[in-house]
Amino acid sequence: MPYFDTASAAPLHPVARQALHAALDEGWADPARLYREGRRARLLLDAAREAAAEAVGCRPDELVFTPSGTHAVHSGVAGALAGRRRVGGHLIVSAVEHSSVLHAAELHAAAGGSVTEVPVGRTGAVAPEGYAAALASGTALACLQSANHEVGTVQPVAEVAELCGAAGVPLLVDAAQSLGWGPVEGAWSILTGSAHKWGGPPGVGLLAVRKGVRFSPQGPADERESGRSPGFGNLPAIVAAAASLRAVRAEAEAEAARLRVLVDRIRRRVARLVPDVEVVGDAERRLPHLVTFSCLYVDGETLLHELDRAGYSVSSGSSCTSSTLTPSHVLRAMGVLSEGNVRVSLPAGTTAQEVNGFLELLPGVVAGVREKLGVAEPVAAAEPVAESLEVDALGLRCPQPVIELARVITSVPVGGTVTVLSDDEVARLDIPAWCALRGHAYLGESPRGQGVAYAVRRLR
Amino acid sequence: MPYFDTASAAPLHPVARQALHAALDEGWADPARLYREGRRARLLLDAAREAAAEAVGCRPDELVFTPSGTHAVHSGVAGALAGRRRVGGHLIVSAVEHSSVLHAAELHAAAGGSVTEVPVGRTGAVAPEGYAAALASGTALACLQSANHEVGTVQPVAEVAELCGAAGVPLLVDAAQSLGWGPVEGAWSILTGSAHKWGGPPGVGLLAVRKGVRFSPQGPADERESGRSPGFGNLPAIVAAAASLRAVRAEAEAEAARLRVLVDRIRRRVARLVPDVEVVGDAERRLPHLVTFSCLYVDGETLLHELDRAGYSVSSGSSCTSSTLTPSHVLRAMGVLSEGNVRVSLPAGTTAQEVNGFLELLPGVVAGVREKLGVAEPVAAAEPVAESLEVDALGLRCPQPVIELARVITSVPVGGTVTVLSDDEVARLDIPAWCALRGHAYLGESPRGQGVAYAVRRLR
């Protein structure tokens, strides 16, 4: 039963399990206490901090442990913004950051700060020039992920860090997705990570703040973790996190090379085996273990359920049909298809057999879902019936508006137009994406009644 | 090697260990995901929430898990204050709350809110009248611990909850020290707890907010845990916390009765075996497992080290001599001696033999520390040499100023005065406490140069 969603949470690494067991016996006491159990806990905590700092590439006294990657991001953003309050209240983030960064930015904006979102291209990468253009005299902080959590694209962190450094602006790098693979290159100022993404236990995040970066922790005072992370530390989990990071790093190069081949195979074969599919993200500058693709005329939740029934656990950035999936702001920012979206992120140790099994299964599953939705022949050959047509898709949810569009496109001649009326938010993303995929021209949108009219010109 | 500091952190309960192991296998995935690993995690999370809610005495949808008791307090105070911002910005706390509550109050005051600290009597208990007097039309929230973490005194929560309820003010109860022993009585509005205090793992706090209490979570948005606790949940630890709370409760009544006898023995025999000792807290209305006493003419850190060398791990609220101990705001608020302070908190399963061993050892250890400090004969018989004397104790640290005072008190006649000049903050607490213990009159303090002059009249 292959689990292909390690970007959400990785199963516990054997080294993490071992270390956790040992630390439950040796590291349950308060490391601030003077008696032997406390001293033993303090030794474990110090050793874990040294190991984690070495893996991150910073000094031990620059690194604190937080209860999660989200806490590390929230504390890091708030502390850096407060530390540079006198400089100004301007924050820069990329449009494809993790929600923890974007939510911290929303809070900053709600409190009167200003936020610039740097856009990304179709592969999901920012251009360093985007950050150069956003940097201003009042910029307190810039944030950029090391690699994207949904599509795997690696960001130009070193270049952006250099631009920020030249402007005297600290750069916070959310390295949650990449830290297991290697240290972050470039002169970052603040770095965050999350242990359960690399096979460590849940309950541990990392927050590293370089010496010299102005940083003013927010929230009630607490003397622990240099005043940067309140609460009694989760020492057994911290020990397990540090030990597993070291273990994962020792295997990283070989495992990355192996998984990169498997992901390349998925990228190639999905595009060949599944009709009307868009494989997204950068094919080269990417995480070794992660690939995302979207299937036209399919609803993500059904696809996910069918794959689960067949034994494969993957995630989806679709928000089709049901409310249980979160719509992907990443796919939207990239301007790529979101319907029928599947993210595959392979855990360490994934075998070629497991990947081949998935590839054998996928085309049939997608075809099955399409058949249920009545799109067995998604683009029916038909005689044109009019120069222009309008499709009323009000009340229909993704992927139905696109299915309706595909059904009628050959009912207008080449050069004719189809207008789709839809009140489904996702249509704004998926209709242009469909046009790009199918080789038609997207003409734009205009408000109409309770919905929006999306106009398409048939080109072939 | 008996560990007598369970009020800091309890060793892991066997049930917690078992549950943790099982949940590491079954509960590592994201409970928000739709595939089988996610659904399994969701089932575990739901079951843990139900078990914890039953133990707390609330509905499952009123309870969320946080990364620590401190996080629960910080989030609880901030959310309640924000939820009632329109009512006013007044916060009531007792003077002996845990530092997490007092630090949250400091932050509130720094942000322009007002805070009333309700004083305590010599046993460490608040009077309900103190809360009645503090409640005002602009009171947004009141906080009261269920029992004190340093001296074990149980607070009149039910009475205070009734007063708050009548005034329409929510009461937040920090139940960290008592939750393993039983549910909190009375109509509390918000309740917080900490798993590692009852034998659960570190990394789990509880925050319960009754339906109908206005509550507005602060910080960046996050959809998890009803929006009240951000970050990826620490599910294995949550499962272990809930399972161990249930297990600890099943044993609580019998274990409380057993430990109560042992603590009574400590209270009685310490007072009898150790000269110049003050056993503090309420002898009756107290936690079953905790007792605190203070020894004149002894520095807490040395005492703690000597007990550690002899195999006993205890904690201290002294701040004598070195900076490694935190001065106790609790002892200060109670107006009792802080020097030579020892807190004994017995873990479940502590045997009578262990307690007897401690009681046999303690008098010799205290005497040894006193001898080192040159107070083998603390109150030397001497002929009065003057009506009044002044002792220059500037630059001397606790317990030296009190030792100097004791050395010269018989050098003035009964009715004569001794004035101690000291720049040690602890003298403000310990000189009056010494007077009360030794039967002399404390006349008050006045500023003098870089220090303070404390005046004492010899009465016997």
Automatic annotation (TrEMBL), chains A, B:
Cross-referenced SUPFAM superfamilies, in alphabetical order? PLP-dependent transferases, SirA-like
Q: Pfam families attached here?
A: Aminotran_5 (PF00266), TusA (PF01206)
Q: Give the protein's cofactors.
A: pyridoxal 5'-phosphate
Q: Which InterPro entries match?
A: Aminotrans_V_dom (IPR000192), Cysteine_dSase (IPR016454), PyrdxlP-dep_Trfase (IPR015424), PyrdxlP-dep_Trfase_major (IPR015421), PyrdxlP-dep_Trfase_small (IPR015422), TusA-like (IPR001455), TusA-like_sf (IPR036868)
Q: Which PROSITE patterns match?
A: UPF0033
Transmembrane stretches, start-end: none
As its record notes, the protein acts as a catalyst of: (sulfur carrier)-H + L-cysteine = (sulfur carrier)-SH + L-alanine
**Keyword annotations for this protein?**
Coiled coil, Iron, Iron-sulfur, Metal-binding, Pyridoxal phosphate, Transferase
Gene3D superfamilies linked: Aspartate Aminotransferase, domain 1 (3.90.1150.10), TusA-like domain (3.30.110.40), Type I PLP-dependent aspartate aminotransferase-like (Major domain) (3.40.640.10)
* UPF0033 domain location: 391-415
CDD domains for this protein? SirA_YedF_YeeD
State the coiled-coil residue ranges: 242-269
Which PANTHER family does this entry report, sorted A to Z? CYSTEINE DESULFURASE, CYSTEINE DESULFURYLASE FAMILY MEMBER
- Which family does the entry's similarity section mention? Belongs to the class-V pyridoxal-phosphate-dependent aminotransferase family. NifS/IscS subfamily.
Q: From the Swiss-Prot or TrEMBL record, give the protein name.
A: Cysteine desulfurase/sulfurtransferase TusA family protein
Q: Which organism is it from?
A: Streptomyces goshikiensis
Q: What phylogenetic lineage does the species belong to?
A: Bacteria, Bacillati, Actinomycetota, Actinomycetes, Kitasatosporales
